[in-house]
Write the C-alpha cells for this entry.
Amino acid sequence: MALTFISKILFILAFLACIAKVQSQLFDITKYGAKPNADISEALSNAWKEACGSTTPSTVVIPKGIWQLTQVKLVGPNKSPIELQVQGDLKAPSDPNQMPNKQGEWVTINYVDYLTVSGGGVFDGQGQEAWKRNDCGKNQKCVKLPLNLSFNFITNSIIRDVTTKDSKNFHVNVIGSQNVTFLRFTISAPGESPNTDGIHIARSKLINVKDSTIKTGDDCVSIGDGTEEVHVENVVCGPGHGVSVGSLGKSETEKDVVGIYVKNCTFLSTMNGVRIKTWPSAPARLQVTNLQFEDLIMDNVTYPIVIDQEYCPYNQCKLDTPSLVKISNVKLNNIRGTSNDPVAVTLVCSGTKPCENVEIGDIDLKYDGKLGPITTKCNNIKPKLTGKQNPPLCAAPAQSA
Ligand SMILES: *[C@@H]1O[C@H](CO)[C@@H](O)[C@H](O)[C@H]1NC(C)=O
Ligand SMILES: *[C@@H]1O[C@H](CO)[C@@H](O)[C@H](O)[C@H]1NC(C)=O
Ligand SMILES: *[C@@H]1O[C@H](CO)[C@@H](O)[C@H](O)[C@H]1NC(C)=O
C-alpha cells in the first residue's frame, strides 16, 4: 500500500516537473527566417520580441552552426524569465562600417529582468582588422570602435558558458545593472589587441564574475565609478592588464566605489595583478572603500600590486595637484608568486587624501633580479602589516634583509 502511494506521489511530481519544463517556450531563430551565411539580425530581433511578450518562461535558441550577425539590440521589458541560448558561433562583420548604427555596440541587451545567456556558443567580434586602426590610447579624438556585448539595466541575470572572442573594443560592458553573474564565461583575444577590456562594470551593484577565464589585451575586469559589491572569484586572467578599479576621478559627476572583492584568482604574465588608479589634477571628490584582494597567485606579473593615485598616461594631465579620491578600508592578504619588474608593490596614495585603514597580510613575491633588487614604493600610506611580507613593505631603502 505505502509503496504504491509513494509511487503515485512520485509519478505526480514527475508529471509536474514535466509540465514546468514544457512551459519554457522555445523561440528558435530558424523559425523566424534565420539562414546560415546570411545576416540573422532581423530573425533574432523578431524571435526576441515574441519571447519578451510571452507570459511563461521563454528560450530564444540560436542553434549550432556559424551565423552572421550584423548588429542587434535586444530590449525588454520581458514578461517572464527569458533565456538566450547561443549554441552557435556568431560572427560580427569584420568591417565595423557595415554596422548600421556606428555609435552602437554589436550586441546590446537592455532593460531585461531574469535574463539567462547560455548555450556554449561564441560571440566572435572579428576584431583583427579593426585593432590595426585603433589609436584611442594616444588620440582622444579617435574613432571609437564598437563594443562586443553591452548589458545595460539588466537585473537578476546570469551569463554563463559562453565565449566572447576578438572584440574590436571592450568585450563586455555592464552599465546600470544589478545582481548579474558571469559564470564559466570565457573571453579570448590576443595580448596585443588594443583597448579590449574584458568586462567593464560601471554604475552597477552586485556583479559577480566567477569560474571564468579572461585572456585579452587590456584589463581583464575593469571597475568604473558608481559601482558597489563586485565579486571576482576563481578567475584566471592573462594575458591582460589585470583587475583594475578606475581610472577614477576625472569627471565631477562620478560616484563612489564601494565593496570590491577579488579572491582566489591567478594572473598569468599580466601587466598588473590588482590595481587601483585615480587621476591627479582632477575634480571628483570620491570615496573608494571596502576593497579586499586575497588568495591571489601572480605568475610573472609585471606589477602585481598597484595603488596609483598619480595615474597619468601619455602625460594627459599634470601631477602638481594630488588626486581628490579617498581610498580606505583596503585588505590585501595571501598574495604570492613572481614579479617581472623589481618594483613588485606600488602604493602611491594622494598627498591630500592619504590612503586610510589599509591592512596587508601575507605577501610573498619573488623577482629574478635582472634589473636590480626587488623593492616596494610607498607614498602617503601607513599600512597595518600582519603575517610575513616578502619583499618588506614600505621599508626604508637602506634596510637590509
Ligand atoms: C539574483 O538573481 C538570481 C537570478 O539570477 C536570483 O535567483 C536571486 O534571488 C537574486 N538575488 C538577489 C539578492 O536579488
Ligand atoms: C580557486 O580557483 C580555481 C580556478 O582558478 C579553482 O579550480 C579552485 O577550485 C578555486 N578554489 C576555491 C577554494 O574556490
Ligand atoms: C613574462 O611576461 C612578459 C610580459 O610582461 C612576457 O613577455 C614573457 O614572455 C613572460 N615570460 C614567461 C616565462 O611567461
The helical segments are 2-22, 41-53, 128-132.
